[in-house]
Amino acid sequence: MKTAETSTRATSDGPPGYSHVYFVGAGPGDPELLTVRAVRLLALAEVVLVDDLAGEAVLALAPTARIIRVGKRGGCASTPQSFIERLMVREALAGRRVVRLKGGDCGVFGRLAEEIAALDAARVAWTVVPGITAGIAAAATLGVPLTDRERAHGVAFITGHGAEGADVDWSAFAHSRLTLVAYMAVARVGMLASNLLQAGMPIDTPVIAVERVGSMSKRNLASRLIDMEASFKASGLASPAVLLIGEAMRERALALMVGDAVRLPAQVG
Ligand code: SAH
Fold it and tell me: Please, which of 63, 71, 160, 214 could form a disulfide with 28 given CB 3.0 to 4.6 Å?
């Protein structure tokens, strides 16, 4: 029988009834920022495997699904990646409608490639439904274009994890005139700053940290690259937060630093 789900799937990588997993981007936590497709798939889901960054308000849209929490937030007890993959395959092969829900967009620091490889190996079909990634949501709350044509040549999503590794070309980033959007950087703010400064990025490069975008307790903190470790530590910056680094942030960072009571758009959190 043809269901609403099979008739409208985005990829036709299997006949109707074939085992199928939907990777769904949950956005930054506010259900109003989900795609219509995400809302529909959550309503139809029988099993939802969810990361800890996907908010409770989003899960409420899957009232009949079994919710399996497989989060692995840094520092807390974590679910091994291989276990998540096995579980996803098992549920799909059992013929259940599986949604793999991830915070933001599944393809931005979401281990999507590994999970797709596991499904491919088990001959389970899949579809990726895009979500609003934290960096895009953060820029929207600030009202700052990441690709401001006067000030940025483009945008790069980077991870603070890379701050520890030697294989990142910091010099390329430092001289790129790209807006850098750094994920998973809170614990590595100092290392990130020193890598960029050593690579020649100007010391007064503006940085805005957006904490818990999509929630009522969202905070924006501004600094210069040279001071960002001390300044963000003093403000108690906590995960999850994204750092937006580059000239496109200049005016908004200055306004935040002087405590200007600029009213920010309220559509995200
Ligand atoms: N796939 C996610 C990113 C996962 S990596 C996305 O597209 O948004 C986890 C990192 O995402 C966190 O360390 C943080 O840098 C960022 N992040 C996720 N949710 C966030 C939120 N609500 N507010 C700020 N940053 C967030």
Answer: 214
SS3 117: helix
Residue 102 C-alpha to ligand 1 middle, in angstroms?
A: 10
Alpha helices in 124-238 (DSSP H): 134-142, 170-174, 189-198, 228-234
Q: What is the pTM of this model?
A: 0.88
Pair 228, 207: CB distance under 8 Å: yes
Q: In the structure, what pLDDT confidence band is assigned to residue 259 with cuts at 50, 70 and 90?
A: confident
The Cα–Cα gap between 120 and 126 comes to 9
CA–CA distance from 113 to each of 3, 81, 106, 110, 143 (Å)?
28, 12, 10, 8, 32
Ligand 1, residue 135: give the atom nearest the CA: 8
Q: Is 102 in the pocket of ligand 1 (CB under 6 A)?
A: yes
Q: What is the pLDDT of residue 117?
A: 97
Judge whether 184 counts as a catalytic residue. yes
Å from CA of 187 to ligand 1 middle: 13
pLDDT of residue 79: 78
Contact 212, 186 (CB under 8 A): no
Q: What span, in angstroms and rounded, lies between the C-alpha atoms of 244 and 255?
A: 15
- pLDDT tens for 23-72 read 999 999 999 999 999 999 999 999 999 988 778 899 999 999 999 999 76
